[in-house]
Amino acid sequence: MTGRPKFTPVREMLAFQLAHARARDAVYFPLNAGEFEGVALKSAARDRAEYLRRPDLGRRLSDASAAQLKALRGRYDVAFIVADGLSPLAVHRQAPDLLRQVTAHLEGWKIAPLTVVEQGRVAIGDEIGAALGASLAVVLIGERPGLSSPDSLGVYLTWEPRAGRTDAERNCISNIRNEGLTTGAAAELLWLLMSEARSRRLSGVQLKPDGKFLPPPGIPAG
Amino acid sequence: MAFSHTIGGVVHRFDDLKTLLAKASPARSGDDLAGISARSAEERVAAQMTLADLPLRAFLEDFVIPYESDEVTRLIADSHDAEAFAPVSHLTVGELRDWLLTDQATGDVLAKLAPGLTPEMVAAVSKLMRVQDLIAVAAKIRVVTRFRTTVGLPGRLSTRLQPNHPTDDPAGIAAAIVDGLLLESGDAVIGINPASDSVESTITLLRLIDLLRTSYSIPVQSCVLAHVTTQMEAMRRGAPVDLVFQSIAGTQAANASFGVDIALLDEAWQAAREQRRGEIGENVMYFETGQGSALSANAHHGVDQQTCEARAYAVARRYRPMLVNTVVGFIGPEYLYDGKQIIRAGLEDHFCGKLLGLPMGCDVCYTNHAEADQDDMDVLLTLLGNAGANYIMGVPGGDDIMLNYQSTSFHDALYLRSLLGQRPAPEFEAWLQRTRGELPGAMARLIA
After folding, report:
1. What is the signed CA dihedral for B396, B228, B76, B25, rounded to 10 degrees?
2. CB B371 within 8 A of CB B337
3. B332 contacts in A (CB within 8 Å)?
4. Mind listing the pLDDT tens digit for each residue in B370-398?
5. Mean pLDDT for each 10-residue chunk of chain B (448 residues)?
6. pTM over 0.90
């Protein structure tokens, strides 16, 4: 009726396949904890296949990593936790820049040793933050790759982290990537949220009653 | 009540009905995650053999979730039609499967039977069926619904035009709608998932579709898939609400996690009917479901995800909906791991819904962390077309840029219609023919 093809032309078809291939590769991109100056930890999920099937295991530390953390316990204002999530690629592309830019703001904050978790989901920050003795946990995690966004990072803030915190008790900044929210803009936003969480001693829905920083629906990071 | 079955001297025991159903369920990651699946392939078949010998009447005496503690169970028990059930009341689950495949079980016979079947009976029989059985039986059943178009007629395949936009930008959404209409999509509904659940943006989007529809006399119905309470408020404020949408699940607790119960849905249904906007019929509700939703809300009560899904259809059928679809691959690999599991689940859901009398469609879809790709979706799409699905989704390019998952594209629907000789809903088809010459120009003006 319009002279338009009734099938997907080969170029469009292959462009789609490329986008999907990149998203798939992002999920299986290996996290190289050595690229971060931090303590390498592992969740209770042994590998990617188990991680994808068992979200519960990705939310807690392996026994060895839990034991390792005990030696690092202190009293800290904030703990930054880098977790691979569903896009380790995003972590490598965005997390170093974001960490550098946000820590530049944190004069006077007592910052816990950086931890880097393999096969981690968002809630693993609760266990790590509590074990470190941090008032605030900030988890930087690879988001589930979209077709044209394989390298999008999410950040989750939790005041007084401890096992059993719900998503309603967190604040989220999502879509951190070059084509979305840049690391510079994200660092500013994160700094504002961290300051507000510290002064009001809370996080989650009450921190921003307008819901602006709530976890977005439908884009689980892990 | 406990069950057992002996194979080669080995006794397999199943403590109760929900355990038996879970162990008989074809393999899927969600039941593994819940820790309720069969421990071996042989145990699964032993459970299926046990289930095959179970009389259908057993499901009227033994509920997988107690009557006292779950309103979905109460709905199932209280709305059961004993007269409709009578023709199959003497059968076991296995005998029902064989009978469904006979020529005696025609579409008309099955339509009359629907109120006599419970979701658990239907889920049970599906567990004894291979893919070809699920397709062969579902293909016999037509469930026809009407609002401004007629959906579900033989030889017809409709689509939900899904023009989602990450920021609900009206221009972006209008462009996607025009793109879809030009590719003959939208005869099931033009349905937008809003990024924001606010009443204001819901009303803005409803008015946008209504303006388009009335300006070009397009026989379609619209829906903005906000929470049901948001749509009810939009109706109170006089917005043009055609279909009222809600996600539903198969347990009271899972529905509570969606912020709904039967009383609220009753209220929404009444409000929607009072709008009197349907021109050729009064099917006003639109529901979405999907295996795994009860488990993800920790509200499954140890019941397998496919049985939970079938129970959601008991909620849906109370409202004689215009459209029901299972969003089969959306939830992720912890519930349906790969293409094989997604394909089977999509066909199970379509079969169970149709056998219970629902106008089933399917969102043939997957996420990027599932072991699935476009080939798997083509397989499911083609099988569902043969099974007689009422409708599928039409998403620009197959990429939903708001919800971040892959569904079927406008072109996928054109492929299926062409392959199977299926046509759009008659009212929509007539409109396409009427406006064929001027449509592109008119549409171009619209977005200019």
Report:
1. 40
2. yes
3. 220
4. 999 999 999 999 999 999 999 999 999 99
5. 90 97 98 97 96 98 96 98 98 98 98 98 98 98 98 98 93 94 96 92 96 94 96 98 98 95 98 98 98 95 98 98 97 96 98 98 97 98 98 96 93 97 98 80 66
6. yes
Does B399 sit within 8 Å of A19, measured CB to CB? yes
Q: Which residues of A touch B432 (CB under 8 A)?
A: 1
Strand (E) or helix (H) holding A158: strand A153-159
CA A108 and chain centroid, separation: 24
- Domain span at residue A93? 42-200
Place of tokens 């809600």: B246
B148 token code pair: 């401004």
Query: Is B399 within 8 Å of A56 when comparing Cβ atoms?
Result: no
d(CA B374, CA A176): 27
Q: What is the helix (H) or strand (E) element at residue B138, kind and residue range?
A: helix B131-138
- A31 within domain boundaries: no
**Cβ of residue B407 closer than 8 Å to a chain A Cβ:** no
Residue A7: inside a domain:
no
Is A184 within a domain?
yes
Give the count of domains, chain A.
Answer: 1
Q: Residue A210: inside a domain, yes or no?
A: no
Q: How does pLDDT run across A3-28, given as a tens digit for each residue?
A: 567 888 899 999 999 999 999 999 99
Q: How close is the nearest chain A Cα to the Cα of B125, in Å?
A: 27
CB-CB neighbors (< 8 A) of A50 in chain B: none
Question: What's the CA gap between A68 and A43, in Å, rounded?
Answer: 12
How far does Cα B328 stand from its chain's mean position? 8
Q: Which of B336, B330, B365 is nearest to B29 (CA)?
A: B336
Asked if B223 and B325 touch (Cβ cutoff 8 Å), the reply is: no
pLDDT in tens, A157-176: 999 999 999 888 999 999 99
Long-range contacts (CB closer than 8 Å, 24 or more residues apart) made by B76-80: B76/B118, B76/B119, B76/B120, B76/B311, B76/B314, B79/B115, B79/B314, B79/B318, B80/B115, B80/B116, B80/B118
Of B184, B369, B399, nearest to A86 by CB-CB distance is B369
> Residue A181: which CATH number?
3.40.50.11240
Cβ separation of B332 and A220 shorter than 8 Å?
A: yes
Chain CA centroid to CA A180, Å? 16
Torsion of CA A204, A210, A216, A217, to 10 degrees: 100
